[in-house]
Every structure is written in structure tokens, then in C-alpha cells.
Amino acid sequence: MPDCALATRYRFAHALYQNVLYGDLVSKRRILLHRQAGEELLQHYGKQAPRIAAQLAMHFERGRDFERATEYLVQAGDNAAQLYANDEAEKHYSRALELVEKLAAEDQTKKKLTVFQKRGGVNLALSRFNEAVEDYGSMLQQAQTMHDPAMESAALNALTLTLFYAHRLTEMAERAEEALAVAERAQSESLRVETMQLIGLKHICYGELAEAQATLDETIQIARSIDHQPVLVSGLGWRGLLHFFQTEYETAEKVLVEANRLAAAMRDGFLVLLSLFALGLTRGNLGRISEALKTLNEGINMAQRNGDRFWYPRLPNCIGWIHRELQDFEHELQYDQQGLEVGREHHVLEAEENSLINLGIDLDHTGKSEETLSRFREAKSIFERDAWFRWRYNIRLQAGACEHWLAQGDLDQADEYARRLLEVATKYQARKYIAVAHKLMGETAMARGDLATAEAELKIAVESLRQHPAPLVAWKVYATLGGMYSKSGNAAAAREAFARSAAVIKRITARIDDERLRETFLNAPTVSEVLRFAETNSNH
Fold it and tell me: How far is CA 422 from CA 241, 357, 403, 431, 475, in A?
């Protein structure tokens, strides 16, 4: 159609629209004009009509063409979801579900299934897990009504995943087994691998890490071979997190970078946030501080834009941890308190318990150690109510408790918690914490005056870190070893240990762009003492 004809048609459609909105028309006439305006806009925009889906949906709804109104409401929801405007998308899908009820009975089931599936997705992205569970449960009912095993399996997989994020783990395990049976009945490799991934998530959550590793590795392999991008991205994200848990940081980063790239290409904000969360922690543990803070802040900004309430509460205490590692105790406390408040506001128990553990450690550093144990007790009470990654947070709690008792001079308690830490860290192959446990046992032995045992424990920590580097722990282990050799009178060994510690510190500071944060770290008493000793003895 010539441009002039298009312009004429558009002006006519616009005039109709204005008359419909502002004209004093009788009801039937208004209905007809709305429908005609919708038709004219469709003709004008042609293949570009989905761009104005919300406007088209409004005209067709007011024109009583509920089938097309539903179609364009769904398209409008899709448009909003593509822009991470999940609240807006949810409203469009909810209105579509209301209009579906006005369609012929035989047309309702399939449309309801589609819309429940889409609304479940945005409710999941908004961390409205109970609402998403209801949506996917309704999707499942529609699929069962249609006797469609493939859609039934898809609904069960979505429901199972949502139950996982909702911390409803008993229900999740039951649904996962049901989903696997239905996927096999549907004879779909795509659906089967979706369910396999969910079983892998169940294993990692419960601390069954050997099973999690095997299942996720197989899931990733199959997903690549059949080009199942959603499963591949999720599998990579959680496999990267498992690499992180086991101090395989360089491998974790490679896996998570791929997960982040693919999630962004899919425009899956929830999985982008998973990758940013794990990448920030990984880069921090590699000693690349500014990169880590940039990654975590990117996650916070995205979560706030998207209305996310699952990953966002977990991010402030991650930044608090980095500030603590750099001896910036003032800002560490602020971020950890923020993490606790946000976790409580959004009822995210994991974020709450992690922040409580961090705050307990913070209070030791800020001279309020009498409050430390109450924070640890609060965290432990959450463990008893929530099994979600309990194994991981128990490791952190044992480490924090050991440091507390060591600072208080209660060597028996410190030794007990260090041995508990070593036991659980070894069980789950958390190599960083294995090194931390041996360091703490070495410090306890030093406090008792048992320098031979201290040396043995610290050497084990050094060897563990040589195989699985963790710079933020390594400089402290070498510094403790240097102090032990100074006490024993072995000046040459002390010089070497302090020199190694100083070299790690310099590598860390080289990756800190923030001058204030870098100076805070370098001027911290323990850090400046290492650097001073290393510089003084560099020519000996």
C-alpha cells in the first residue's frame, strides 16, 4: 500500500480512537468503533502490530472481540516480560485470564494453560513463589484435562522448580519424581533433561554433592547435544555455584561467564541474577575485588529494576563480606545490617541467616563480642526451620564460632569448633574452609604454646591452598605461619612466610580500584605489619 494511503488509514484509525475515547456515543456504536479502530490499527501496522499489543487489546476488549483481546493481552505481557517489566506483564496476563472466561468453553482450556504458564514465569521472576506455584498447579490441571503428557510434564517441571525456590523441599522432591515418570511417558528427551536438572538442584540443596555433580554434568551434556538452552543455562549456573562451593574458582568463573552470557541472550533475568551472584563471590575469592564489587552491584541494580525478591536480599551481605576481608569493618557492618533487614522484609530465610552469621563475626571485630553468640543462635534457629543449603551455612557458622572463641581466649571451645569445621568442610570438599580449619587449629595450638603442632597444621593449610588457590585466605595463613616461625626463632622461615604473605597482599591491592578501600586494607594493623616485616627483611 502507498505511503499516502497508509497515512490516510492511520489518520482515520486515530480519529476513530479519539471519537471512541471522547465522543458522546451510544453503547453499541462505541463497541463497533472500538472494533473498527482495532482493525484499522492492525491494517496500518501490519507485521509490526505486536508492538502496540496493549492498545490493540484495549480496543478489541471494548469492542467485545474477546478472542483477539486475549491474544493481544498475552502479546502485551510478552512484550513487557522481554523488557523485564514483570509487574506490568503479570497484570496483562491476569487480565487475559479474566477474558478467557468469556470465550467458548471448548476454547478455554488450551488458552488457560498458555497464560498460566506465562504468568507463572513472571511470578517466579518476581519471587512470588506461592503465586507461581498456584499458576503452575493450574497449568497442570489444564494439561491433565487435555490428556497432554508433554504439557503435563512441562507443568510439573515448572512447579517443581518453583517449589525449590520457595524452600518447599519435601513437596519439591515428590513432584520431581512425578515429573520424571510423566516425562518418560511423554517419551521426550527435552522434558526428561529438564527433570534431571531439577533432581540435581535437590541434591545440591541437601548437600548430596557427588550426586549433584554427576547429575548436573550429565544434564549439561544432554542439554548441549539437543540445544535445550533454558536447561543448559540453569545447569551451568548451578554447576558453577557448585564449583564455587568446592573452591574451584577458576573453573567456576568460566562456567558462570557462559551461563551469564546465555541467560542474557535468552533475556532470563532470574538466571542472569543467579550467575551474577555466583560470579561476584567467585571473583571476590580470587582476590579481584573491584571486579567482584562491580558484578555484585550490577546484580543489585538489575534485581531492583526487575522487582526481584529472591537474589536481591542475598547480595548486600556478599558486599559486606568483601569489606570485612579488606578490614573495612565500618562498611561491612552497614551492608550486613542491610542484608538482614532486606532478608526479613522479604521473608528470605537464607539471606537472613547468612547476614546473622556475618553480623556475629562483625560484632567481634567492632568490640561488641558479647552480642556475637546471640546472632549465631538466631542463625542456628533458622537452620532448624529451613533445610535450604543448611550444610553450606553450617560450615560458615562453625568457622565464625571458632574465631569468636579463639578471640575470647577459650581454647577448648575454639578447638572443638575448629574440628567440627574441618569435619564438615572435608565432607563437602569445601577446600577453602579446610584451609581455614587448619589455620584456626594452628592458631589454637600457638596459643597453647604448642608450636610443633601449629607448624604442622599451618603447613597443611598452605598445601591445601596451593592446590586450590584462595588469595583472601592465603595471605592470612602465610602471615600466621610467619608469626609462628618468629616465635620459634626460625628467622629465615619467618622471612619467607611473610614475603609470601606480602606478595599475595600486593596482588590483591593491585585489583582494588577504590583508593579509599585500598588504603583501608593496606593500613589495617595485620596487613601493615606483614608488609613492614617483609620490607624490613627483604635484603637479608
Answer: 21, 18, 14, 10, 20
